Amino acid sequence: xxxxxxxxxxxxxxxxxxxxxxxxxxxxxxxxxxxxxxxxxxxxxxxxxxxxxxxxxxxxxxxxxxxxxxxxxxxxxxxxxxxxxxxxxxxxxxxxxxxxxxxxxxxxxxxxxxxxxxxxxxxxxxxxxxxxxxxxxxxxxxxxxxxxxxxxxxxxxxxxxxxxxxxxxxxxxxxxxxxxxxxxxxxxxx
Length: 190
What we know:
With 190 residues, this protein is α/β, with parallel strands linked by helices. The chain has helices at residues 5-14, 41-51, 106-115, 136-148, 158-161; strands spanning 23-27, 55-58, 77-81, 84-87, 96-98, 100-103, 133-134, 152-155, 177-178.
């Protein structure tokens, strides 16, 4: 969904005497490796200018490669990743899920992935990792460690991957995000 000038003016009026930032908190880039992004970081930079966006979170799957690209600029791009995995101790019909981990810099993400051996993180520019299995307790340890590094945890498009009628299966801890809008407001996942 692209904000119109009218939308932006309305939002800016809500934040009178404050600086609103316009951006995107869940995107992918075509950076090779395990990335499933369709557009390069160079494309992102140009399109962000056109759309008057201040930032975009680039969260590629199973790697940190995007944060090492020459086009990467901290601040313009927010780093992180979108791992996936399985929760071994919930009653959901399909206990698979994805989650976003947003960080300030590559070092924070690499530290975090290394602290959790379940990822089998290889480190460095080509540092791929796997999608681990976690108990809820271990997932909460991950979230706590991420927050201690100044990071932010989000459960993106929860109903797309996980099948459960229990709303608490989608909530993991206070001060975490739950992405509630997917593609359009008519989507069954929304």
